[in-house]
Amino acid sequence: MKYLSKKNYIYKILYLTKGHHLSIFFISLLFIVSSIFDIFSLSSIGVYASFIFSDDPNKSFVFFKYLNEDIVNLLKQNNFFILNILIILLFLIKFFFVVLIQNTILKFSFDRQTEIRKKLVDSFILIPYSDFILRDTSEYIAAVGEYTGSFGTSISNILKLMSETMVFIFVVTFLFFINGSILLYLITLFLIIIIFFRVVFKQKLNIYGKLTAEGSREMFQGINEYFYGFKELQILQKFNFFKNNIMTGALKFATNNRKAQIVNVLPRYILEVTIVFFIISLSFFSGDFINLVPTLSVFMVAAIRLMPSVSVFITAINNLIFAKYSINKIYNEIVIIENLNSENAKLNNNTQHKKVKFKSFEMKNISFAYPQTDVEIIKNLNFNFNKGDFIGIVGSSGAGKTTLIDLILLLLKPSKGEIFINNELINDNEINSWRNITAYLPQDVFIINDTILSNVALGEISENIDHSNLKLSLEKAKIYDFVNSLKEKDLTVVGERGIKLSGGQKQRIAIARAFYMLREVFIFDESTNALDVENEKQIIEHMNSIKKEKTIIFITHKPSLLEKCNKIYKIENQNISQIK
After folding, report:
1. What CA–CA distance (Å, rounded) separates 389 from 553?
2. C-beta separation of 412 from 406 below 8 A
3. In 411-562, which ranges are continuous DSSP H helix?
4. Beta-bridge partner residues of 421
C-alpha cells in the first residue's frame, strides 16, 4: 500500500478498511465459485438447446465433444427428464449462492460503516477543544451520518464491482471458446455504453456527490438551529428564515441526489435495448440459423447475465465517483484523529486516572491566543485559589471570563506560562486527574431527555447507580423535596434539554450531579443569568452554604452577586486583578 499516493481514491478506501483486507480476499474466493456456477449454468443452456433444435448437437455446440456418449443417451431419456432436473437444480444452487454472496457483501459493508462510525464517535473526545470550537457541529453530525453512509455504500459497490468483474471475465472466456466473432461483437456494444457513461457523466457525478453532501449538512444544521431556538423563534416570529435554510439544504440534497439516481438507472434500460438489438441483428445476419440456435441461446442467456454485470459496473463506478467527496471527508477525519498524540487516548479515558485531593491551584504568567489569530485574549495573567475558597470573578462581556474558565478546566492550553495544582506543575498526563475533581456549571445546563436519576448519575448504567449517594446529592442540592413530590419521583422524565423543569431546578440538578460525582471544585459560569431574582438569590445562598466542603468559583458580570465571596477578582484588559 506504500506505493499508492495518499491522494489516491483507492488508497483511501484501503486505508479506511485496514485490518479487513484478508476478509476481502476470502469474499473474492466466493466470487470465483459464483462465476464457476455461471459457466455451468450457461453450458447447460447450450446443451439443452442443442438437443432440442439441432439434428447434430456436436456441430451446433462446441462443448458437446466433451460429453461421453453414454451420458448423452442418459440425458435424452424420458423426454430429457434428467437434463431438466439437473438444469433446475443447477440454477437453484446458483440462486442460493448468489443470495449468500449478496448477504456477505452487505454485511461486510454495513459492519465497516458501523466500525467507522464507532471510531469517529470514540475519537471525537481526542480533538483538542481549541480545534473543536472552530468547526460547526453539523460537520461532525454529517461525518457520522451522511459521509459514513456513503462510505458503506462505496464498500458495497467495490465488492459488487469485484464480483461482477469476476463473472464477466469467466463468462467472456467461456464465450470466446464458443464463438469469438460473436463475442467480439457483444463486447464492442458493451464498451461503447461504458465509455459513453464514463465520458459524459464522470464530472457531473463528482459535482452531484459534493452538492448532495453539502445539502445534507446544511439541512441538518438548519434543523438543529430550528429546534434549538424553538421558543425564541416563536416569540420573534422568525421561523421562516430557518425553514428556508432547511429547505434550501433539502432542495440541494434532493435535486442532486435525483440527478445521480437518474444516471444510475439509465444503464439498465440502455442495456436492455442493446441486448435486443444484439439478438435481432445476429438472427438477421446469420446464414445457418438452425445450427446457430444453440450458440445463440448461450449468447442470449450470457448477454442477459452480463447485462446486470455491465449495469452494476457502470452504476458502481458512478456511485464511487458520487461518493468521492464523502470518502475524502471521512479519510481526512480519520487521519487527523489517528495523527493525534497517542497519549491523548489515555488522557480522555477517565477510568485510567485517580482523583487527587485538591489543595491549591495556581496560574503563573499565563498568556493565550486562539488558533489562527495572534490576538491575545489573556496576557501575563497570574491567579490562584485554595481549597475552601469562594472565589468571585467579575468582568464585562468579552473580557475573557469564559476563556479563563476554559484554561482553568485545562480545555485550552496556554500559549505561555505554567499551571500548578497542589504546587506541582501540571503535565498532559494529569489533565484528567484535575478534571475528575472539577464540575462545570454553565448558564445553559446540560440536561438529557431522560429521567432525573439518569441526569444526576449522568453516564452510569442503572445497575451501577449508587442510590444512597443519589439521595444525599439531591438533598445537598436542595432539590430532594421537589423530586420526592413528583409522581414518578427520580424516574420522572424531564424532556428535551430539561424543558419540563424551571431554570432554577435545572441548575440544582447540575449541582446534584456534581455532588454525586464527588467533585471538589465547582465552577459556576454565569449560572444565574437566566434565573429570576428569587431563584438567583437561592442559588447564591446555596453556594455559600456548601463552601465549607467545596471550593467554588463563581463567574458573573454582576458585582452585586459576589457579597458572599471571600475573594473577588476582576478581569479586564487581558488580565485579572484582586479587588477583595
Report:
1. 8
2. yes
3. 431-435, 452-456, 467-476, 480-485, 503-516, 533-546
4. 361, 424
Q: Residues 483-511: pLDDT tens digits?
A: 888 888 888 888 877 888 887 788 888 88
Query: Over 60: is that where the pLDDT of 451 sits?
Result: yes
Per the structure block, which three cell numbers stand in for 102? 449478496
Residues in CB range of 44: below 8 A, 6 or more apart: 83, 86, 87, 90
Instruction: Look at the pTM and tell me if it is higher than 0.70.
Output: no
| Percent share of the chain, pLDDT over 90 | 0
**Locus of grid cell 444516471:** 263
- Residue 205: DSSP 8-state: H
Closest CA to 543 of 566, 517, 577: 566
* Positions of E strands within 350-484: 360-369, 376-386, 390-394, 416-421, 424-425, 438-442
Residues in contact with 209: Cβ distance below 8 Å, sequence separation at least 6, in sequence order: 150, 256, 260, 321, 322, 323, 324, 325, 326
Give how far Cα 342 sits from Cα of 44, 155, 346, 348, 428, Å: 59, 28, 7, 11, 12
User: Could you report the per-residue pLDDT of 156-186, keeping only the tens digit for each?
Assistant: 888 888 877 887 887 778 778 777 787 788 7
